[in-house]
């Protein structure tokens, strides 16, 4: 494996002889993926043969046609309403230029706002609903109504109690208010207060941060780790410290915005590969080695692959064994974002690295967040000590961002010790197993009902496809009437024909809660005609089953 410290100092060169040898070398064997499994952290070199089951069933043609038709009708009426607003026939509620500034460069781009004011506003009541309790398996919701078609809201003063929470990332149920569970957090709050008021490089490194970083490194099985106060900034502020001009980033097309922003801020060249498509990734790697940088044809200083463990909108799991094999074959680096997978998959909750039985040393940069499975805030970067020491000096978050507050650090320590069994109980392991049971049960029942759902059978992120724009609002409102809180997502956050509801399964969900949700979905699926599944084989697995990666140009 390439020395991870080279990620820091940037001295990575590819010689022509090496390039030829790499292109001639084989990656796959007939009996499976040539990837060493590991048990208790020890690689044994045996092929990885576990079948990866993911679902990406295509909707019937009439659904796609009706979806485009729905957007078309909405667009026509949007232009009609814009015309009426322009002539004063309808009240203009959006920001507009003053008459005195008509000759100025426009501050508000009218066309860019078209979708927001004409489509999003019609269903805006399904987002940003204020919660007034802990986001556990159930929560309390502040009721609000609108008198002007979602342009403004007013609160009624009524609290909607015990809404089943199917939207929060509370995978292991550590978002809780149990007094005994939060006892140590309360002690740290009284000792340290709520804030640090300084950066890590100045006076913001506390003994709690040191304790947490040592625990994270031990949990992941790596040399060192560094924690940050914000999960989004862990990606966006650290990627620019690792790569820059003259480097190449190969990014999965479905990567999170934080990865995309970090890649753009770095100044490196960015190339996108199709989601989990190893053929496409290898072609980009091979071309990068052969042709080098544009115009100059010099070798890239570094090539780094950016992927996620679990993709939060698709519910799919990264094909880590193949990617590790490719990155070793072409001497690239691998940056793995485990925001949704750490704690959620793997026999003991150690993420996709453990899920595939691999060694943490196979990944050059391990990133994750504490905002989901740990019920806290912030993120981490882990790996070789040289890498972490470099980031302590060069990371924008370390230099400019305020440190993680001590009570949050203690919450993460509490949850992580529970997962590791250091609290003297097996509660952490039970939570991981319960999450797996709940996930498989929920997904299986949805399949049986005839819904189209995306992703891996072991992923607690469960997207249920709605497709048509008119059904987004109807679905969320009807579910809330049944005291079930859901997250619905549409264009432009998803492809225009793939609007969806995204469920996040939790270990804290009881079987009764899940059955309540499933019964409501079964009834609503019939009412809104959402059961589109024909149990047809997805086109994605056919591509993934390929064992030969060489492509014809």
From TrEMBL:
Residues in Aminotransferase class I/classII large domain copies: 161-521
Membrane topology listed for this record: Single-pass membrane protein
GO annotation, cellular component aspect: endoplasmic reticulum membrane; serine palmitoyltransferase complex
Keyword Membrane tagged: yes
Record-annotated membrane-spanning stretches: 59-80
Gene Ontology terms: biological process: ceramide biosynthetic process; sphingosine biosynthetic process
Keyword Transferase among UniProt keywords: yes
Protein name: serine C-palmitoyltransferase
Gene that this sequence comes from: Sptlc3
